[in-house]
Amino acid sequence: MDRSRHTRHSRHRRHTRHPHCVRLLLPLGSAVCAAALLAGCSGSGPSRTDATTQAAAPERASASDLQRDYQKVIRDVLPSVVQINATDSLGSGVVYDDEGHVVTNAHVVGEEETFTVTSATGEDTLTAKLVFSYPQQDLAVIKLDEVPDGLRAAEFADSMEVEVGQLVLAMGSPLGLSSSVTQGIVSATGRTISEGRRGGGTGAVFGDMVQTSAPINPGNSGGALVDLDSEVIGIPTLAATDPELGGSAALGIGFAIPASTVRTIADQIVKDGRVTDSGRAALDITARTVVGDDYRPAGAAIVETTPDGAADEAGLRPGDVITRIGDAAITTTTSLAEALASAKPGDKVEVTYTRDDDERTTEVTLGER
Description:
- The two termini are 21 Å apart.
- Among the domains are: 155-270, Thrombin, subunit H (Beta Barrel); 281-368, Pdz3 Domain (Roll).
- It is 20% helix and 39% strand.
- It has helices spanning 28-39, 48-77, 106-109, 259-272, 310-313, 333-341; strands spanning 6-8, 12-13, 81-85, 89-95, 101-104, 114-118, 125-134, 139-144, 155-156, 167-172, 180-194, 205-212, 224-227, 231-242, 248-258, 281-282, 285-291, 297-305, 321-325, 328-329, 348-355, 358-365, 367-368.
């Protein structure tokens, strides 16, 4: 389980920032040595200049091809990424369809219901209203009051096809700099992430997240993480923080809600105005963290069970202390949520628990929350 703390990366307060910049230089000596090795040391054969040119030509061609790929992706997708302005904060969003629906993070919209939306070109300033916010998955959909001509919806990828090592671009409005693009790779998939409670976090747990090295900053939330096929593979929403650095962001470790989850939730909101099927597994209990004799967290005690819910049907009852789900140790309600985040409603799991100081196990068919 990933137990590092994470922080949301939007709700950027309105003020001007002047970021510090440094140049990254390759030592001159390294470049000279590389050229000499490619050319050889004898006086026979091609000249040093000719050999270096011949060796560098394929590299330049490859770099040029990659640059063209990047530029094409930006032309294809950036017009579908917008900046969302609330009363005292801003974030990003992605145009979801040609009817003017825009998907973003729930924490971008917060408690507000009306917004100003700025297109990637900065030429169109539009107004929008909230359709529905679903904090459990940190997703929301807003709808433009008027749909401008030429509005372009983004294409969303199949999350099952996302692979570690893929090149990706993050598009959004970091620090209020609209239409910004950064580059990285998919660092991992299937991450279970716990959001910290500092800085307005809720402590929520999210499953199947895409980890990326593409830099994301305050204002990127709700934007687009895009592959080289010009498809959105995720919605950036969290960045790792390093407790040893006082909770500062850990560079190059960001997380995005996978595209398939975005489509599942957004489709329901667009169709029904709300989420009717969360797809999130549940034990159907209310629980609290308990501590052992050493005053360390020792499990999740059941406070209440939902009548005829998953736990109730399996014979669990208030007072039982859950200590393990399958192979995952449960010491807190957060670790319980993390263990369930990768499961689906209807899955059968083995639950280990204590009752009257006796350790027991039971099989539970998970419900839905």
